[in-house]
Amino acid sequence: MIKHFPITNTDKVIEHYSQKDNVPIIYVCTTDFKMSDRPVDIFYRNTPHPTFGNRYFGIGINHEDGSYVIFNADEIESFTFGLVEDDDGNLQYSQSHHEYKSFDNGNMIDGGRRYIRSSRNNVSIYVVRDGKMVERHLTTSDSLV
């Protein structure tokens, strides 16, 4: 199971936008998007928004006035995430550039989307596909370096 640490009340966001747009909305993850160390929550709808055409949207905090901003987050499917197992057997990822997580089992993860740094070679690479974080399996064209 992947453990997330959202910045919003995801249940309220899901309820609001599911009712507003009359489509199911699901929470995907929390990550830096365009700005370093400013994680946002990413949500998914399986049909494109009728006005904007996006299936993913992000909600983040406007650090100038504390309000929330909403934006097109379709680019999330091009991101990679390094995940490691925590002490309870859950998978965790670094949500932002300078978020360093370490666990008593010796695992650590750092770097957000800027880079993936881990203490061991047991990091799993995940991507987002159709609203879910899924493990990316290497192909013959992928570099191991």
Count every helix, treating DSSP H or I runs of 4 or more residues as helices: 1
Order of helices and strands: HEEEEEEEEEEE
Q: What structural class results from the helix and strand content?
A: mainly beta
Q: Roughly how many Å is the radius of gyration?
A: 16 Å
- Compute the number of structural domains: 2
How are the strands of the biggest sheet laid out side by side?
A: 1-2-3-4
Largest sheet geometry: 4 strands, antiparallel
Proportion in helices: under 10%
- Uncertain runs are none
Beta-strand percentage range: 25-35%
What is the number of strand segments? 11
Q: If you average the pLDDT, what whole number results? A: 92
Shape descriptor: globular
**N-end to C-end Cα span:** 27 Å
Task: Describe this entry's structure for a reader.
With 145 residues, this protein is mostly beta strands. It has two domains: 10-76, no CATH class; 80-135, no CATH class. The protein contains one helix and eleven strands, in the order αβββββββββββ. The chain has one helix at residues 10-21, and strands at residues 25-31, 40-45, 56-61, 68-72, 81-85, 91-93, 101-102, 108-110, 117-118, 124-129, 132-135. The chain has a four-stranded antiparallel beta sheet, covered by helices on one side. A four-stranded antiparallel beta sheet has the order 6-5-10-11, with no helix packed on it. It has a three-stranded antiparallel beta sheet with strand order 7-8-9, with no helix packed on it. A hairpin with a 5-residue loop joins β5 (81-85) and β6 (91-93). 23% of the residues are buried.
